[in-house]
Amino acid sequence: MASLGSGCQSLQKLDRGIYRVADSVSETDQVTGRRSLSFAARSEQIAQGNSYIEKLLAAETKAGRPVDAALDKKQYLRLIRVFDRVHAVSHLRRERWQPVLLDRDSFNAFTTGGTYIVVHRGLMQQLQSDDELAAVLGHEIAHTVANHVFERQSHVQLSTLAGSRSARRGSYQSAFTHENEREADRIGILYSALAGFDPLASSRIWQRQYIKEGTGRALRFHDHPVNTERQQEAAAVGRKVAGYYRAGQQNPAYPQLLQSNVLWRQSQSAAPGEGGGVSALFDTVLGAYVQHQVAKQEERRQAAEIRRIKALETRLKQPQFKKVSERQLKASWYYQAGSPELQSVIMGLLVKRNEQVERYIAHVPGRVTAGRRFSVSFTLPVGLTVDQLQQLPLKFYLDDARQVL
Predict the structure, then answer these.
(1) What's this model's pTM, rounded to 2 decimal places?
(2) Could you tell me where in the chain the CATH 2.60.40 domains are found?
(3) What are the pLDDT digits (tens) for 135-178?
(4) What is the rounded distance in angstroms from the CA atom of residue 82 to the CA atom of residue 134?
């Protein structure tokens, strides 16, 4: 007959074995303390993520395109200065990271799960303050902290092996990424506040992008929150973490605040052999299931929004277009009688030029009332006239609208 002690040792051994299994397909989320899917260890993530960036940098050198200080010394030094402050209060502050400035006009920055952060010069030029830059850099660091690149890969692989039809849908994949983007925004705003940057700066970025770009809601499923939603959520998160903000100064309590704050509280798990194995396995399975359900819910929400906008679009009748000046086009529509009154209406224009599809938007002032015409003016960019536009394939569409309650 086995002794009580040997029975306990067997259970401890089993629990440690279960932990090794769970640890091979997941990791401890540095933000929440819970388990998240990941088939790659951090060393593998760094090697794979950095390999992609190093090939990109080699291609830039081969093409004769300068990077970093050789491209724009002033913006590169600004990038380094702001990045160092944000990185210093992040969960990955002990890793040696390298910011990279590329010669691109686009409003973009990205990471690949390694220790590089790539920023386009166009983004640096468009951001109006270091506070806004800090929010963007915090967001990108957060993607790696939360292991979004490899978590998504692992989730898709596991879902495919499990025979999930959802994982094969592009709309589901967009929704899954959409939720990761929301999480990165929240983490990034906290980082910027802890580093001494205004946590409301992020909301100002997306308010500006909304005025400039509209939403693009009706065009397709989106893997980033649309500008209106992003602005509203960023403002709400910024207000929540405002108490941690010390203008221009690092919050001295940042190590503790990374573990417990108004956005999350890290959970503590038992050690392997002491119930940690069972806990890790349960956490991994539950976490993957919850992510799957949240992504499906977001997929359904986006589908409903697309249907709503397209239903409203069918109520726009008798389109008329008129040249106002060389680069200004006035368009008007009759809004069908019996339709709900609308506000915050945005009309979009798609133009195919030089094998590229360009998108222009215009905000309709005031409210749109049923049974009347409304009009809006599109201002075209330098190099494209209304006469040229009329010779190109184009399409007008309803970008977004809110029903007056």
Answers:
(1) 0.92
(2) 314-403
(3) 999 999 999 999 998 887 777 666 665 667 777 788 999 999 99
(4) 6
